[in-house]
Amino acid sequence: MKTALVIGASRGIGRQIALTLAKNGYNLCVAAKTSEDSEKLPGTIHTVTKEIQESGGNAIPVQCNARSESEIRQTVKTCIDHFGGLDVAVYNAGAILWNKVMETPFKRFDLMLDVNLRGAYVMLEEVLPYFTKKNSGKVIMVSPPIYSRFFKGKTPYSVSKIGVSILVQGLGLELKDTGVAVTSLWPATAIRAHVTDVLGVDKKIMRKPDIFADACLKIAQEESSRLNGQCLIDEDYLRSVGITDFTQYRCVPEHEPPRMMPLKFPSLKVAEEDTVTAKL
Asked: Structural domain of residue 175, as residue ranges?
């Protein structure tokens, strides 16, 4: 039985990823900062673990503050020790503020760097030696393809998320022929979550988090490392593996949410891509 770790799994997309993987036969390490339920932040590592266990799955809760290097490292070790292995590691922890530079205090920028980028790096540093030693393993990061429009109006946030995408693309080159694959995933449309409910976002323009979780499952189940180093969009990837009916993911059955991501992304490769002597 394979094992998956999801960091940032107490609610929203992370919760659904954990539930979907567990439903499809994975042991789950449910990791997040929230361990106590509250009206402001409903959902904890314990409530998600209970959901999995009550549906017949196998899961353990691990409290993990994504700003803490030691807690991330210990979470990975706890998962491996408890289940005897690890096959898939998903980094979904995130801090969000979509503001311009002059509207983003340094304290908030620092938070986004810590949670979105630094935490992802720590998880990578902890899981990669284990994965490369056994010549197998999948890492899934939540970050977008790299394109200029993404930066508009949210440059500080973009720095933290595009940094993860750079990690994925660069690390993909380093992991070639190791049996290990790192892939990033981003939604094509808005996804319903606790924060969208609080903000009163119209459900007509959103999809259920199930679409993102289903894409994660398919990536985890890929037999090869063909997705290594790629930054994917959930809908586009699911279409590429034969899924064509997306009505099941609508929050409002009669309304198809508008796509917020471009249909085509630019290539970052240059003519000298494979020149051995090129260092810059």
From this structure: 3-249
Residue 276 is predicted with a pLDDT of: 64
Give the residue among 222, 120, 229, 88 at the shortest CA–CA distance from 171. Answer: 229
Helix axis angle, 12-23 to 45-54, nearest 10°: 30
pLDDT level of residue 274 (50, 70, 90 thresholds): confident
C-alpha distances out from residue 250 to 202, 215, 246, 257, Å = 12, 15, 7, 7
Number of structural domains the chain divides into: 1
Cβ atoms of 18 and 59 within 8 Å: the answer is yes
Residue 127 near residue 74 (C-beta atoms within 8 A): no
State yes or no: is 157 an active-site residue. Answer: yes
Q: What is the pLDDT of residues 182-237, one digit of tens each?
A: 999 999 999 998 888 888 999 999 999 999 999 999 999 998 899 999 999 999 99
Evaluate whether residue 274 is within a structural domain.
no
According to the model, what pLDDT value does residue 106 have? 97
Q: For 178, what's the count of Cα atoms within 13 Å in the CB-facing half-sphere?
A: 20
In a domain, 205, yes or no: yes
Q: What are the backbone dihedrals phi and psi of residue 207, each rounded to the nearest 5 degrees, phi first?
A: -110, 160
91, 157, 237, 249: which one is catalytic? 157
- Indicate which CATH number applies to the domain containing 71: 3.40.50.720
